[in-house]
Amino acid sequence: MIDKARIENNLKEFSFPRLSGTEFEKKSFNIMKQKIEDLNLIPLIQEFSFSTFYSRIYPKLSLTLLSWLLVVLFLNFHVIFTIVNLSLIFILILILIIFTRNPETIKVGREYHSQNLYVKLTSQSKNSNSDYNIFLLSHLDSKGQAFSIKIRIQLYYIWILSFLLTLFIILLTEVLLLLYFFSILILSINCIASLLIWLNTTNNKSKGAIDNASGISCVLELLHYYSNPKNRLKNYDMWFVFTGAEESGTMGVRNFYKYMRDFDREKTFISNFDSIANRVNLWDHGLLTKKNIKSFEYLLQNKEIMNIVKTRRFYIGTYTDGLFLLNKGFQGLGSGDKSTYNYVHSINDDVDKVNINILKKLCQFYTILLNEVDINFQK
Asked: What is the C-alpha to C-alpha distance for residues 188 and 192, in angstroms, rounded to an integer?
């Protein structure tokens, strides 16, 4: 049975600043480890180290190089000056692209330590096929920033639009000379956006109730539910995964992927719980099908707070464990709340922003959905 009071208690217990790689993230890890042990389950641990270069420096450096590209093209100062700068920019961008192909291996700057925590519950079936698996994920860490995630996303949009518009105008300057002066304004906006992105520094001031104590509470409640052998799925093994360092370039799931890389994409489903507050957006990529009749009925009954959103493989300014696994070819479902962006990564991300009833309804929905997935296994 899904317990609202337990969800609320867990939400409050995990709502404290816990920046990845710090003693505070380690605290959240220890709390979760104890809760798993209290369920008479054995927690498994994957430790790893990481650098914050990929998440905090690489995006800013890349955008700055591209902004400098615009400045060079705009100035058109001297042939040699232009060629040298364009060559240097191209080489640096190429190096960055090659260098960041496997972000989890980067060891530039200070090295931090984190860990993933996970539990596997085997199915009821005596003839269980281990190829059939369901992963439920949430991340243990949080982060604060100078700007909320909404402002950060807006800055990225402004930067992209101003970059494309300035580049377009520069290419037309010889034809439409009057656009030259307009391009000064747009280029200035692009440079200001780059500066503000640099100023959006990371801190440990956000309690992370929405992002992601809400997701932690849901996955933990589902773990409590399925820890009862009577509630186990008959045909699917279930994995409950609490990742570390998600807010530092999804380093936790990138390391955990080492365990998942050989899993059959047609027989494995993943679901990521991240940033839920007053409604639920369900990003579907293969888990919801026409066979899930009861699940769709439940969604219709709760349509004022739950809706299905078409999943894309790329989102400007945001990246999650679920998106990482989607881009690795896994089917699944993501749970979040786009209306939270005013508070996420800010000091305003507190418990009072989260509706416990929403978390309870989401957990109930998953018990219905996963039961249907399990039943449809036989058809």
From this structure: 6
